[in-house]
Amino acid sequence: MGSGKFGVYVPEDLMIELSRCMQALGIKSRSVAVREALNLFILEHKWRYGGKVTGVLGLVYDHEVNDVDEALTDIQHKYLQNVISALHIHLNERDCMLLLVVKGEASEIKNLLSELMNLKGVKLVRPLLLSAEK
Ligand code: NI
Fold first, then answer.
1. pLDDT digits over 70-107, tens only?
2. Residue 45 marked as a ligand binder
3. CATH, domain 50-131, list 3.40.1190.20, 3.30.450.20, 3.30.70.1150, 3.30.70.2390
4. Is 21 assigned to a binding site?
5. Which GO terms describe its biological process (predicted)?
6. How far is ligand 1, taken at its centre, from the CA of residue 49, in Å?
7. Where are the alpha helices (DSSP H) in the chain?
């Protein structure tokens, strides 16, 4: 496939943010910004294609919600082969950040991710995963 061109409708608020972002990054051409955004979007989701992936799952959770700490520990033990390391940071009186360094098949990491997302008390799960495939 050769190069391509397409028109995209962009709402006003996103347009304003785009201009702000381009200014901050010193990008003058909208095409350059959109190409960069597409590259980031693809990089963000590429691990989902399958194969081996490595990276970090970042979580924010409310540790005062019943049993959430125990549930998080159980899940890490269940995914023993995938969870390499964990870092716990106390954010404030209630919220904790948990960073899980993970590795394995994309399908396994997807399952782990969905278990974490569905836990009561977990406010946010943000994957930062890179495909180990080309
Ligand atoms: Ni904590």
1. 999 999 999 999 999 999 999 999 999 999 999 999 99
2. no
3. 3.30.70.1150
4. no
5. response to nickel cation
6. 33
7. 12-25, 30-45, 68-78, 106-117
